[in-house]
Amino acid sequence: MILSAVVNTMLREPITWCRRLMTDRDYRTLLSLQMKLGGIPRFTECRLKLYDWELVIPDAASFLSTYAEIFVEQIYKIRFTGDSPYILDFGANIGLSVLYLKKLYPDARITAYEADPRIFSYLEQNIKSNGYSDVLLVNKAVWHENAVLQFSPEGGDGGRVAWDGENSTVEVQAQNILDLLKGRTVDFLKMDIEGAEDLVLPVCKEYLHAVRKIFVEYHSRADECQQLDKIVSVLAGAGFRLHLQSAFCSPSPFAERRVHSGYDLQLNIFGWREDDL
């Protein structure tokens, strides 16, 4: 019985792989990109053609990871009731999320925020040079107040508001999230702001009722108390039904706790209204 199960597993996985290779264009593209970009050193700028887009990327490793999440796993695949949903993208990085959503909904009204001045230049080039003049791009952080913040750039997709004691920082403008949500109905809010979500989400909880769908990337700092209960409470209190996926975790956390970029856990949190399904 055990031998049979092992043999069946060995046979089934190559078959599944071959079927996906033949039927999934985005998966084939990922394999091709991995062969082309896999040997490029971190934080080396390069240019590439992706579908009909000409892109400039600052870091091949973070690009490949983000492409796999967005285009292969399709974490932002959404059904909207109309053809021109209003989307707020907080933490747009180099623009892959914007390109994916515009591919799904060409008439989508998207406002995209990116705090890192250098990464914003890639976002601007990748969106505008590919003909998306209707996307509003804002080089600011999203915060719980209007402020000037110290920002710690990473060079890829991991830039964040600086932690106490960090020296390698740049100043960035930050915009109060309340100004972006007041009086608006938002079809989709994407929040990937590298650990600032536990400060930003609670201040706008009363306005989240006007948001139809939400995505939050939750980050657990290894050296601080976890805030997952606060994030879940805010979202559940705003009437969202939630689904959680692991973005980074330790396989055996009782035995070994892994830390990546200062975080010991990252979760993708999806929220939607029951009447949207």
Characteristics:
277 residues; alpha/beta; Rossmann fold; four-stranded mixed sheet; 32% helix
Describe the overall structure:
- The chain is an alpha/beta fold.
- The chain has a single domain, classed as Vaccinia Virus protein VP39 (Rossmann fold, 3-Layer(aba) Sandwich), CATH 3.40.50.
- It has eight helices and 13 strands.
- Strand 4 (109-113), helix 5 and strand 5 (136-138) form a beta-alpha-beta unit.
- The protein is globular and about 45 Å long.
- Residues 1-7 have low confidence and may be disordered.
| Spatial strand arrangement across the major sheet | 5-4-3-10-11-13-12
**Which segments are poorly predicted (pLDDT under 50) over 5 or more consecutive residues?**
1-7
Write the CATH fold name. Rossmann fold
H and E order: HHEEHEHEHEEEEEHEHEHEE
**Which second-level CATH architecture applies?**
3-Layer(aba) Sandwich
Write a concise synopsis of the structure shown.
Helix content is 32%, strand content 27%.
Question: What does the secondary structure layout of this molecule look like, with pairings?
Answer:
Layout: H1 2-23, H2 25-37, E1 46-50, E2 53-57, H3 60-72, E3 86-90, H4 96-104, E4 109-113, H5 117-128, E5 136-138, E6 141-143, E7 147-152, E8 160-161, E9 170-176, H6 177-181, E10 186-191, H7 197-200, E11 211-221, H8 228-237, E12 241-248, E13 263-272
Parallel strand pairs: 3-4, 3-10, 4-5, 6-9, 10-11
Antiparallel strand pairs: 1-2, 7-8, 7-9, 11-13, 12-13
Helix pairs in contact: 2-3
